[in-house]
């Protein structure tokens, strides 16, 4: 085969395609994460359903309805604009990401034609000026063509590979994440008698750090004593049990079992 033609073509287009695919991979990955974080309509619907009784008691139904409607309209606008890029085939709701997917598809599908144009641009001078064998040049051109066709067919799955890589990264980060409440196998092991002490406990849920649930809660429950925790929906009654079971840790203050801090 024509080594000069193959080497030049391989280096030029491999570098071009490599840089293009790396750029697209990083861009699509960032946009995937952005879309997941900015799904406001889904977040609003979950919070509204979880706190529906509190919303009704405060007569704020209209406010949350308008808030959800605004987020839904934003998604609808993105969905309609997206149709100009992919014809509505993709179910995602982000125009920039759809544009990147369309760019990836167009670049990889036209790559073979750019490769042929470059191959002939290099091959013709080799024949006319340097007296290379015509058959050797054509064999080199068709070897480049077949290589480009293989790359083109593989690259159609590139967006799916990028999305799978993003999802796998999030999954492994979740698996490797260490619990903020500590390791259950470490700490002091003692026999519990049943005395519970809440001493100036402050707490806010991690999802809503600016909405305090407890502001200096303090009470004592002795062994065998029955205590009723009374309050409206959302006031933190079930949160007391969650703190005792250490699904969460208090933001400030101390919770003790028989005088021993439960964090130790």
TrEMBL record:
It holds the Pfam family ABC_tran. The keyword Lyase does not apply. It is found in: Membrane. The keyword Cell inner membrane does not apply. GO terms for cellular component: membrane. It is a multi-pass membrane protein. The chain crosses the membrane at residues 12-28, 99-124, 136-158. Residues 13-163 form the ABC transmembrane type-1 domain. One of its GO terms (molecular function) is ABC-type transporter activity. Keywords: Membrane, Transmembrane, Transmembrane helix. Gene3D superfamilies: ABC transporter type 1, transmembrane domain, P-loop containing nucleotide triphosphate hydrolases. InterPro entries: ABC1_TM_dom, ABC1_TM_sf, ABC_transporter-like_ATP-bd, P-loop_NTPase, Type_1_exporter. This is ABC transmembrane type-1 domain-containing protein. It comes from Cylicostephanus goldi (Nematode worm).
């Amino acid at each position: 085969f024509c080594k000069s033609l193959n080497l030049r073509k391989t280096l030029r287009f491999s570098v071009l395609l490599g840089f293009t695919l790396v750029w697209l991979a990083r861009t699509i990955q960032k946009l995937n994460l952005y879309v997941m974080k900015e799904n406001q309509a889904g977040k609003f619907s979950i919070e509204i359903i979880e706190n529906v009784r509190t919303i009704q008691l405060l007569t704020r139904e209209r406010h949350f309805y308008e808030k959800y409607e605004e987020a839904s309209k934003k998604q609808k606008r993105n969905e309609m604009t997206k149709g100009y890029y992919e014809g509505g085939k993709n179910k995602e709701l982000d125009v920039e990401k759809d544009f990147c997917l369309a760019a990836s598809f167009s670049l990889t599908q036209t790559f073979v034609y750019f490769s042929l144009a470059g191959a002939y641009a290099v091959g013709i001078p080799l024949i006319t000026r340097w007296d290379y064998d015509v058959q050797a040049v054509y064999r080199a051109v068709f070897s480049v063509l077949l290589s480009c066709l293989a790359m083109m067919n593989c690259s159609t799955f590139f967006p799916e590979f990028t999305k799978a890589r993003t999802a796998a990264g999030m999954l492994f980060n979740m698996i490797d994440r260490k619990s903020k409440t500590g390791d259950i196998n470490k700490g002091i092991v003692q026999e519990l008698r049943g005395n519970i002490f809440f001493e100036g406990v402050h707490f806010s849920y991690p999802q809503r750090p600016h909405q305090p649930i407890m502001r200096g809660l303090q009470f004592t429950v002795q062994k065998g004593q029955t205590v009723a925790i009374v309050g409206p929906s959302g006031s933190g009654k079930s949160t007391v049990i969650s703190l005792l079971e250490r699904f969460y840790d208090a933001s400030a203050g101390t919770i003790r079992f028989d005088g021993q801090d439960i964090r130790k």
